[in-house]
Amino acid sequence: MSARAMLALLLVIGLSAAAPVLPDHALEFPRDRGSHPQFLTEWWYVTGWLREADGAPLGFQVTFFRVKPELPADNPSAFAPRQLLIAHAALSDPRQARLLTEQRVARAGFGVAEAGEADTAVWIDRWRLERRGADYFATIPGREFGLELELRPTEPPLLNGVRGYSRKGAAANAASYYYSEPHLAVSGEVRRAGHRGAVTGEAWLDHEWSSDYLEPGAVGWDWIGIDLEQGAALMAFRIRGHDGDTRWAGGTLRTADGRVQSLGPADVSFTPGRVWHSPRTGIDYPVTWSVRAGERQLTLEPLMDDQESDARLSTGAIYWEGAVRAFEGSTPVGRGYLELTGYGDPLELKY
Fold it and tell me: Is the pTM of this model over 0.85?
């Protein structure tokens, strides 16, 4: 689901000439790893934990979004933005106690940006996320920091919802096609402050596309993707209303022995804990959580409190997205990412 703050696009972009999400569609690989330009919005979202040579932890996030703006069907201009590409990257470094962020936006085409349809190959200028062979490669030459990472799958894709059809509300059309790839083995380099350092770690990839994601009255969501012990994995989310009420919830739990359980609204609950107040935006975010997902009860603790992203230059959204540790009682059982959107203004973005 992901900086899924881009999903706010779906609240305001018209739905004409956009393909619907249908429950009887079977995902096919590698084709469905590529772009789906007939749908309004799509994202490839990679988050993970890295270890530097001295063992120090880092969190990272790389997201590419493809957006199909509403245009008149007979618009003849070659310069009309028929597809927009947006990219976000972030690095969580506890030693700096703040989030380093970068963002890019461009219209597709003209040799500047593209999202390939045959397989994962999305790029803006020199920013790239692509699959070569079985592995993914992320190249982010940002100003404050840079990433050069190889991500190797260790498990088959995890189909979320019902065979990849993931409901986001009571209406059947409030849905997406959605799969995840947990437990990606990561190696590569991180650059910041003129220094390059080798890193290793583990990551999570989400790929999701839709034309009608959020129902009216929804203002944001809470989402987690957690790499659990012994190869287990959990994706869970809830959609929030104006009063903080849960309008919908769901998820997918894969156990260590490979069994997959699709979780519905009755199976998932998010209970907020400690609140962090952003000194920049004045927004309050709950940064510790108790999450019930099926028979598992997790407590989430952030790598650091200040993991707020300000993406107003590219999407108009401000959200909290950061690395978290997962515990059952006092026992550490996993690590992953938490995303919190709509805690300031309700999500709204116009193109």
Answer: yes
